[in-house]
Design brief:
Blueprint lengths: L1 H30 L36 H4 L9 E3 L4 E3 L3 E3 L4 E6 L3 E6 L2 E6 L5 H45 L5 H15 L7 E5 L3 E5 L2 E13 L5 E11 L2 E7 L2
Antiparallel strand pairs: 1-4, 2-3, 4-5, 5-6, 7-9, 8-9, 9-10, 10-11
């Protein structure tokens, strides 16, 4: 009997312990729940919207006009004749229908015209005066543009021909020395042949031109310089120096 009682008590104790532990774990889990997963929302930048560009409207080119008051003194712009836009009546009951060509005598806001030896004054817009002048001016402008174009073409051709001639000359005589090269090469040559090298002072040297010296094709330049003579007196001398490549190869004093 005692053993049964002890067994029952043991079972009850074990059951109680299990109930207590189970309750503890349930409460702990409720007090410290697992952290919820963090969901990161991807925020996309708003698409940039370009500001509308203002529309720039070009002002229309005004049509060409004729200053009729100014035309009165610009006889060079007057055509020899005009065409009537409307019927015109001349002295002597002479009538000229629209479309008739009449001789122009004077022009301006009011025009004087002649038809069958009779003259009459009309408003300019009763004729094609303005249209004729504008047409003539347009033709003159077109011809001037053609002339400028032709001049440009001719200038290009002339340059091409000059370049071709220069190339041909340089093939025969070598490259033309620059003014600076000619100046210093001649100065060096004159110093080497002068009795008093330090006295040589170049004054000028002309642009080089093709020449021959001692049977050699070269370039020549007219030079003017100062030096001292045998007595030590300063003198001015001129002559022709000959250059080949970047060196002076000879000099001839001007007599």
């Amino acid at each position: 009997m005692a053993l049964v009682t002890a067994a029952v008590i043991s079972v009850l104790l074990i059951g109680g312990i299990i109930l207590v532990l189970n309750k503890y774990f349930v409460i702990t889990l409720r007090e410290n729940p697992a952290p919820a997963p963090v969901i990161k929302a991807e925020v996309k930048p708003a698409a940039s919207v370009a500001a509308p560009q203002p529309v720039v409207e070009m002002a229309p080119t005004p049509p060409p006009t004729v200053d009729l008051m100014e035309l009165k003194s610009r006889m060079q712009d007057w055509p020899d004749e005009v065409t009537l836009a409307t019927q015109a009546v001349f002295p002597g009951d002479v009538t000229a229908p629209a479309g008739t060509n009449v001789k122009l005598i004077s022009a301006g806001p009011e025009v004087e015209v002649e038809y069958q030896d009779e003259t009459a004054k009309l408003l300019a817009d009763q004729t094609d005066l303005v249209a004729r002048i504008l047409s003539h001016r347009a033709q003159v402008a077109k011809e001037l543009e053609i002339d400028r174009t032709m001049e440009g073409i001719a200038s290009v051709h002339l340059k091409e021909e000059a370049d071709a001639r220069q190339k041909e000359i340089e093939n025969m005589y070598g490259k033309a020395p620059s003014h600076e090269d000619a100046y210093f090469s001649v100065k060096t040559y004159l110093k080497q042949s002068a009795k008093d090298p330090d006295s040589v002072e170049m004054i000028s040297a002309s642009p080089a031109v093709p020449a021959e010296y001692g049977g050699r094709k070269c370039w020549s330049t007219k030079v003017l310089f100062r030096t001292r003579d045998e007595m030590g007196f300063s003198k001015q001398e001129s002559g022709t120096a000959y250059i080949e490549g970047d060196k002076a190869i000879g000099y001839e004093r001007e007599q």
